[in-house]
Amino acid sequence: MATMDVFSGSAFSAISLTGAINQQPFLPSLLGDLSLFTDRPIRTRAAYIENLAGTLSLVPTSPIGAPLAEDVTDKRTVQYIPTLRIAKGTTIYAEEVQGVRAFGSETELQQIANLVAERSAKISRDIQYTWENMRLGAVQGIVYDSNGTTVLQNWYTIWGVVQPAEVDWDLDNATPVGGAIYQKCNDAIRAAMRAVSGMWIPGRSYLIGLCGDNFYDNLTQAPEVRATYLSSSQAQDLRNDVGGPFSSFRYGGIVFMNYRGTDTAGLGINTDKIALFPVGVPGLFEVAWGPGETFDFVNTPGKPLYLIPVKDTARNAWQRIEAYSYPLFFCTKPLALLRGKRT
Q1: Which of 92, 114, 197, 338 pairs as cysteine with 276 (C-beta 3.0–4.6 A)?
Q2: Which domains are assigned to the chain?
Q3: Residue/partner pairs of 8-16 with CB below 8 Å, 24 or more apart
């Protein structure tokens, strides 16, 4: 018969549980799978983020012996930004393991470990889902809390810049001008290249456009886009993947993706909108991971996720597993984050 004493073993310590859960593969998520954000483990509860506003200037010609043009020191901006705290717990009651027996090749410890792993995975999935929400906010410049209205971080105001205006892609136009969409693509790419300056790497950097359902449907149905595919070897793509739900295609140097969020209201892109951001730009997107808040992890480099066991010391009637994460997803050049609408 199972007992609650097994939780006193080293297998259920904060260090053991945290190590195990961080070895598990992450749940599928579009922005997570793109590996946009560079991991930056930190030892403090806040990150110091430095922005160096590098400038280029023409050097005027001068006669021999004349005074030299004096260089102007680039301005550095340092922001002190606290990491965010995400936490969720689950409780395992003594009654739940009352009927667990050690039989066959499974020991009592193994069976309870399976129960702990199942519960831990469930709350970990919720935290990873929250990360995706934060990533989606970071690639648009504004990170919202779970209610979708409370602003956690506005990277435009943090860096003291004005958010680029929303561009009308005019996708509902019944008689569009030929090449109008291609021109929108060029405009967006130029704006992003200028915003990231020398960080843009030719041949490696490009734009991704996360599209809401209506925007994506109108875009794939646009005569200009369809004509381009029909007149090329990619015509079969048009019949198959391009235009299908939650698929993607490349046009005008931009990879357009029909972003799939939650099936109900929650995580996602507005159905009539597009969010554009560069990829393949070193240092553009980063995530700082703060350390855990217990003595086990004080002053250690932060990990994405911590699992902490909490024991009922008064009655030994339950054990809790609590999951914590201290992320800071951010964009160093928010002027490169562009937005548009279909009409």
Answers
A1: 338
A2: 4-55+75-144+285-331 (3.15.30.10), 163-283+333-341 (3.30.1930)
A3: 9/109, 11/109, 11/113, 12/113, 12/116, 12/309, 12/319, 13/296, 13/309, 14/292, 14/294, 14/296, 14/297, 14/306, 14/307, 14/308, 14/309, 15/296
